[in-house]
């Protein structure tokens, strides 16, 4: 590690102002990706602006048909929150299976989304649930937020303050995890709404994506058999030391079926 300045922000506006005055600074949301990168000298920011103590970003509210989670809420807090477990049990379940206990106690939803690791769990839920990412200056629809590997629609000095989730009729996540990192080799989140089904897939490509084939099949018949009957082409999927593109293509409908089964097991 090397020397750097550390600042703790009390509000979002102050955090953004501090970052704007120092183009070489970074937000510190949980540090689960940033700090290892710094230790390897792949990133060398001159300052870290800690946003994890901003009170307005440390709340979870359930209002009618919308669940709002503050950007600084760590995974363990999301998993344990009574409103999340009642309104979107599939999201609470996902948060409770991210990484290991230490990661869940430090990593935050805002930090995960801003980093946009291609194998992270949260992006699949945000995309499938048609969530809205709220920043210090605008609202970004999930379909417009994720661009490519580690690339989002965020500006360099833009801070995620909250994420708004519509409430699905049924929703759940299933993943085949890498035994070493606990990241998703493939992860699938399914969300059933009154007007159809959305499916977010992570770990299988350079960035999270929606599966039109699974959405069409599950919108007609929200069942395990329907999900497993879908064929996914491997053409644009990852092919690496962990799994071939063909294997990932095989896993997607299998995991989608398991996610449907899990979704149907939660209280309606």
From TrEMBL:
Q: Any signal peptide, and if so, which residues?
A: none
User: Transmembrane ranges?
Assistant: none
Q: InterPro entries from the xrefs?
A: CO_DH_flav_C (IPR005107), CO_DH_flav_C_dom_sf (IPR036683), Diverse_Substr_Oxidored (IPR051312), FAD-bd_PCMH (IPR016166), FAD-bd_PCMH-like_sf (IPR036318), FAD-bd_PCMH_sub1 (IPR016167), FAD-bd_PCMH_sub2 (IPR016169), Mopterin_DH_FAD-bd (IPR002346)
Molecular function via GO: FAD binding; oxidoreductase activity
Q: Which PROSITE patterns match?
A: FAD_PCMH
Q: Which residues form the FAD-binding PCMH-type domain?
A: 1-170
Gene3D superfamilies for the chain: 3.30.465.10, CO dehydrogenase flavoprotein, C-terminal domain (3.30.390.50), Uridine Diphospho-n-acetylenolpyruvylglucosamine Reductase, domain 2 (3.30.43.10)
Tell me the keywords, alphabetical order.
FAD, Flavoprotein, Oxidoreductase
- Name one matching Pfam family: FAD_binding_5
Please indicate if the UniProt record lists Oxidoreductase as a keyword. Answer: yes
- Official protein name in the record: Molybdopterin dehydrogenase FAD-binding
């Amino acid at each position: 590690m090397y020397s750097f300045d550390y600042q703790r922000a009390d509000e979002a506006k102050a955090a953004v102002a501090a970052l704007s005055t120092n183009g070489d600074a970074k937000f510190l949301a949980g540090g689960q990706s940033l700090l290892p990168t710094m230790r390897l000298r792949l990133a060398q920011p001159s300052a870290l602006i800690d946003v994890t103590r901003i009170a307005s970003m440390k709340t979870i509210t359930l209002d009618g048909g919308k669940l709002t989670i503050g950007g600084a809420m760590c995974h363990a807090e999301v998993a344990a929150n009574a409103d999340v477990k009642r309104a979107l049990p599939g999201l609470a379940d996902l948060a409770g299976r991210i990484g290991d206990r230490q990661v869940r106690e430090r990593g935050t939803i805002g930090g995960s989304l801003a980093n946009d690791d291609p194998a992270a769990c949260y992006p699949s839920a945000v995309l499938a649930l048609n969530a809205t990412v709220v920043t210090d200056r605008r609202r970004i629809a999930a379909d417009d937020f994720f661009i490519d590997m580690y690339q989002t629609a965020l500006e360099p000095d833009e801070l995620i303050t909250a994420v708004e989730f519509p409430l699905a009729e049924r929703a759940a996540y299933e993943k085949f995890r890498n035994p070493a990192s606990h990241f998703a080799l493939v992860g699938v989140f399914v969300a059933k709404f009154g007007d159809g089904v959305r499916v977010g897939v992570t770990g299988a490509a350079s960035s999270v994506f929606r599966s039109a084939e699974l959405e069409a099949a599950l919108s007609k018949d929200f069942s395990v058999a329907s999900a497993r009957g879908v064929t996914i082409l491997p053409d644009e999927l990852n092919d690496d030391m962990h799994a071939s593109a063909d294997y990932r293509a095989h896993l997607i409908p299998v995991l989608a079926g398991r996610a449907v089964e899990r979704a149907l097991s939660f209280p309606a």
